[in-house]
Amino acid sequence: MKRSWTSVLLTLSLAMAFAPAVVFASGSSQSRGATTSTSGGVTPQGYAVPVSQGGELKDQFTVFLGQVVMSPDDTTMQKALREKTGIDFKVRGIQSDDVQTAVNLLLASGEQLADVLVLGRDTVIRSALIQSGKVMEVSSLFSSSTLKTIPNIPQKIKNYVIEPDGKSYVIPSRYAINPDDPFPGWTLSAFWIRKDLMQQAGVTEQDISTLAGFEAALRKFKALRNPAGNPMIPLSFIMGNNDQGSHQENIIVAMFGVDMAGSVSGMPGVMEIDGKRVFAFDNPDYLEAYKWMNRMYTEGLIDVEVATQNPERFQEKLESGQFAAYVGHAGQGTWDYWKDMNGPEDNPAKWYMNPFQSPTVPNKPKQAINYINPYPSYDIFINKDTKHLNAVVNWLEWALEPIYYRQHEAENGPEGTTWWFTDAARRLWQFEPEFEKDRSSGDAVRSARVSPQIWQVATYAKDWYPWFTQAASNLAPGNFLTPEYCNYIGQNIVNHRTINNMDLVQAPLDGVIANNLPTLNQVRDEYTAKMIMAKTQAECEATYQEFLRMLETRANWSGMKAEWEKLYAASK
Question: Where would I find the beta strands (DSSP E) of 343-382?
Answer without folding.
Answer: 353-356, 370-372, 378-382
